[in-house]
Known about the structure:
The protein is mainly alpha-helical.
Amino acid sequence: MKKLKKEHERISTxxxxxxxxxxxxAMDVYIPSFPQMANDLQVTPANIxxxxxxxxxxxxxxxxxxxxxLDSFGRYKIHLWSLAIFVVSNIFIVLTKDxxxxxxxxxxxxxxxxxxxxxxxxxxxxVFTGEKRKHYTSMLTVVWSTAPILAPFxxxxxxxxxxxxxxxxxxxxxxxxxxxxxxxxxxxTIIEKQSLKLKNVFQVYSKLLSAKDFSIGILVLGFSxxxxxxxxxxxxxxxxxxxxxxxxxxxxxxxxxxxAIFFGGFLSKKMIDRPFxxxxxxxxxxxxxxxxxxxxxxxxxxxxxxxIGLVMLIHFWQGFTYNSYFTYSLVRFPEYAAxxxxxxxxxxxxxxxxxxxxxxxxxxxxxxxALSYSYLILLAVIVVLLxxxxxxxxxxQKKLALA
Length: 403
């Protein structure tokens, strides 16, 4: 078994950071190509959106389990095989005209990227200790957030210049180059392999999910990011069909959304010591006000930049909510930090992929009014969840006071 060499530690760290955004690129880079894919493959927009949903569910579910597999069998070989399969799957997507085969390949990609990303997160725990470990792990979300910003922007230009297939050629090249570099510079980093004990794993999962603030948090995270996904799956049709603009403009719209989410998360980090539940209500009320304004002005024929301005306000507070609750979920059970991270991330992926798919296909979201309705539906669910959470917290505090 090839071990990571000390002299390759630095470059291997850089490679790990380059691979962290892969999940976001695989999710977002082909969003501006949705309309052309539907036309070329002669399928409905719902079938194209399903390629995203299948990927998200696969990626979300597999995150719940790949950690214990990597802990039991090692990181390096599984990681290399996952990269190779990811490369081949993208080539097959380009070559096939069968939408159901594409659905299957996207399902496979969700699993392979889960192995790739989770193994690279574990890399920083395996290799570094103390302040270095804290420094590098704190950068993971910042590095990942570059993908939702850059991917649709890049995808818009690829779509305009070369067609939808170029997005998957890009992913294949990305994966292939990284595979070659990983073969040369990386190696196994696991210190001690763990025995695979499913009983213990399920006991921990049961403990986490029985805590209502944690389990409600997964739902809040899922429905919160669902707003971003509904926008992402709908904006190409709004831009290209309603405003009659090019895929490049779709990419710019997605770029604006990503920037808003980034700054919302940044504000959440700055307000980390503020009362937790008050922050959630501040975000929910702010989003609701903007969504209602978007609905009331839907008959005014707002220009695209004005619509995107309203979307950015909603997505700013979405980024604030997501970062606040995800951070809370990670520190809620410090003794099970890795498991809590996987469960919160994977569970929220499952929730928002299902929610966004059903909403985007239940409503024909090709204009401002339909988009505002989708936001209001998801926000209404979040408000109900926060009310349940408030009731749970109040009951818990009363029990502690009586004790």
